[in-house]
Write a structure and sequence with these properties.
Layout lengths: L6 E8 L2 E7 L3 E8 L2 E9 L6 H15 L1
Antiparallel strand pairs: 1-2, 2-3, 3-4
């Protein structure tokens, strides 16, 4: 997945660590940040029928379910 034009959304802190969240036109991507960039751990396709906040909530639930 190309992250060249991805927009930084923020960070999510969980018991397992801190995840950076990026947004592309079609996906929300989360992963760990390093000096060289983001190491993606997962993604979720954005559902355009819902707001970005609702999509972010779904991503957070997905992350918490995989911990």
């Amino acid at each position: 997945m190309n992250l060249d034009n991805a927009e930084y959304v923020g960070e999510l802190e969980t018991e397992d660590g801190i995840y950076s969240i990026l947004k592309t036109d079609t996906h929300l991507i989360y992963g760990t940040s390093w000096n060289t960039g983001l190491c993606p751990l997962g993604s979720m396709e954005i559902d355009n029928y819902f707001s970005i906040d609702e999509n972010l909530q779904s991503l957070i639930e997905q992350i918490e379910d995989t911990e």
